[in-house]
Amino acid sequence: MAERKRIPVWQEDIPRATGVIPDPEGGEETECDCPRLDAADWHETESDWSDITFVRGAVSAVFGVPMNYVSVGAKLRVRAASLGATVPDDAMLLMGAGKFRRPVLLELEGVPRGARGIERPGGVVYSRLVPAPLGEMKKAVAETELKARVKYGRTPDATWLWYLTCKVCSRDRNFETLILVHYPA
Fold first, then answer.
1. What is the pLDDT of residues 112-162, one digit of tens each?
2. What contacts 24+ positions apart, CB below 8 Å, involve 37-43?
């Protein structure tokens, strides 16, 4: 069995988006706890997904724009607890493609054997950490899929997005997004 490479989501010497973020209009300061990823570990890298586990949900979309992404994540956390699984700190909350309905995956650990509704995608994932404001998302995804096709010689099975910023920190972090393309085993 191949050794799983567990990539750290943050390190002590890398500032994390916890704490105070100033309001650009000079109003009250707001707190945010969005994950920060080290580009050296995530940008244009390959990760082994042979033992990663997710619980699946879905989000409604209007012409491709997700409507309740955060609330679906909260529901998946409740579902994970009911399964007896744990959600790791800064777990991946991935969203797939779809015009009216998009799949959502939440990373889990400690999933009991025989638990239902669990996804074990296996294979490998090629990822790129990119700035992706809404108007540039389609281009960033297309670039990532093209790089992956060149690297692996075939079209990926699925493309996933992990939005790493919220409405508080998006502008300051230039809408940082992790784009992942999946190749099953």
1. 888 888 999 999 999 999 998 878 989 999 999 999 999 999 999 999 999
2. 37/9, 37/10, 37/129, 37/164, 37/176, 37/178, 38/8, 38/10, 38/11, 38/14, 39/129, 41/7, 41/8, 42/7, 42/127, 42/128, 42/129, 42/178, 43/127, 43/128, 43/129, 43/130
